[in-house]
């Protein structure tokens, strides 16, 4: 039993770090292929060092590696080795993929290739932001951290009464706003905020879509038939409770079941076929854990 437990943990560990690599590769692709070639920035430490790159030409990957190394040394004692360990791996992975992407996208004259053509700033902004959001979403779902602002926000949250999310939001807005005094270019500021909005939306969509299951509450006079069909046709269980109509004072069975989002139509159809007079409530259930769903992970 102990061997199986350890083996399972090793497998989970490998899956998590593989997912972190995939997520960071997608995130780096968004920057190297779309944002950096079109001089677009956004929030976060990567956005800050993108501005540095536009001014000095210093590679973003090197700047991220150096800054994270300093921050991780400072935060090791107050934040603990687990947070620092994952953040260090994420920082190295991001720097690695960003450098590969930069080399692949660099033309013979040293400029970055605009793969969707010149003048396509809006499209580059949207595509880069979507890839950024999806990449970071994959990292978050695997329990990883991106390093960078996460470290600063965690330190601020530890010593000041400022929430983690609010600290990140303030830092992002400061980075994008700094484009104006440096470049005097309204375009960069506008595209920066657009990128931040699209990036956040893509991130939320990915995370929420993976956590959305459907909960059904069914009031029916045919509880046995419906329960048997749900169990046999979806492999999910059903909880049965006794109910009473307050107005009619009639006894009725109340069934509760949670299924995957893709199975919602199947549930509605079998209810309609079995008891067309059933009263059904359908709602989204985010973060369902246990048998038949995701395992509980601390």
Arithmetic mean of pLDDT: 83
How many alpha or pi helices?
11
Q: Name the shape in a single word.
A: elongated
Strand content: 5-15%
User: Into how many domains do the coordinates divide?
Assistant: 2
Helix content: 55-70%
Oligomer: single chain
Low-confidence stretches: 1-5
Structural class: alpha+beta
Largest sheet entry: 4 strands, antiparallel
The CA-CA distance between the termini, in Å, is: 20 Å
Rg, nearest Å: 25 Å
Explain the overall architecture.
- By secondary structure, the chain is an alpha+beta fold.
- The protein folds into two domains: 2-209, no CATH class; 221-286, no CATH class.
- It is 64% helix and 11% strand.
- The chain contains eleven helices and four strands; from the N terminus they run H-H-H-H-H-H-H-H-H-E-H-E-E-H-E.
- The chain has helices spanning 2-35, 44-56, 60-79, 81-105, 121-141, 149-159, 164-177, 179-183, 186-211, 223-234, 264-274; strands at 212-220, 239-244, 251-260, 279-286.
- A four-stranded antiparallel beta sheet has the order 2-3-1-4.
- Helix 3 (60-79) runs antiparallel to helix 4 (81-105) and helix 10 (223-234) runs antiparallel to helix 11 (264-274).
- The longest helix has 34 residues, at 2-35.
- Residues 1-5 have low confidence and may be disordered.
